[in-house]
Design goal:
Keywords: Aminoacyl-tRNA synthetase, ATP-binding, Ligase, Nucleotide-binding, Protein biosynthesis. Helix content is 57%, strand content 6%. The chain has 13 helices and five strands. Strand 4, helix 8 and strand 5 form a beta-alpha-beta unit. Helix 3 packs across helix 12 and helix 10 packs across helix 12. The structure holds tryptophan. Tryptophan (TRP) binds next to strand 1, helix 7 and strand 4.
Amino acid sequence: MEKNVNILTGVRPTGSLTIANYLGAVKPLLELQNSGEEPLLFVADLHAITDYEPEQVKQYIRELVADYLALGVDPEKTTIYVQSVIKGQIMTLSAYLARLTTVAELLRVPTIKDKIKHGQSAESANALLFFYPVLMAADILIQRAKSIPVGEDQVAHLETTRVLAERFNKKYGEIFPIPKVTQVKSLRILSLKGDGKMSKSSPEGAIFLTDTLEEAEKKIKRAQTAGDKEMTPSLESLLLIVKMLDSTEEEQKRADDIIVRHKNGEQVMGEFKDLAIEIVKRFLTRFQTKRKEVLADPTYIDKVLEQGNDFARKNADETMVMVEKAMYGN
Ligand code: TRP
């Protein structure tokens, strides 16, 4: 099982995915995998319990793995594991890293700052949330990963990882590669109702991978677009969905053509929505069929995870031996 870990990324199991999750997070991973990389993907269940109940998180783990497999993650190329199978190693490494940072530094991390913005004081934030960037550093460093593709919102956390890796290496020797952060292009997929980004928190404006075709159609029919001749963020976002959601070249051309006509003052928003409905329905049908296939063999997910978990454990144990030798001496 020799494997050189280059790329690693994590995803929190917190419930149903939307097409925005697919476009923003899963598709970039598929592109890496299909370009010959062998990424590590882990289900960040310890991170999920910062704000979700453990019992629920546990149920979401298999759901998430089923979704990712149905979306095209290939376990022959991408190693999938569950973070908590190495929770002992991760928590120990977190403690070793935490002694190299200060409370003040952790208070400056944006997730905590967001909490303050939302009316809470930093002091009243859940202490695991406060610890989040250290835990992330441990996730990455324990696998000695070199490159971390993440969305824009995670970039600040990874700065903490780089700083902690550098401090550790400086003090105890070159144990950790300094991970490179690769920010995946952020797509502005907005809520169909025009209330911010598409997300679970506004279900009427989000298309879930588990939506029935009728539900999806209804949501698109009610979606905000734009008045005569204008381009709005809502329309741009719908156009992005139409063009990125595994549509054919012919469909992409048709979409561009409709937009040209719209800008010329033609009444084509109905036609545009029909095209969007066709593309979204086909995507959902393919996904849902594939997901049934994935779940048809009840042991399949277990086998996939067993393989990934074995790799993650072995690699984490190796790292901990190196780390403790470096820190405590022989
Ligand atoms: N914090 C990430 C998120 O909320 C998930 C995550 C946890 C992660 N540990 C990581 C991502 C390490 C990349 C690397 O999406």
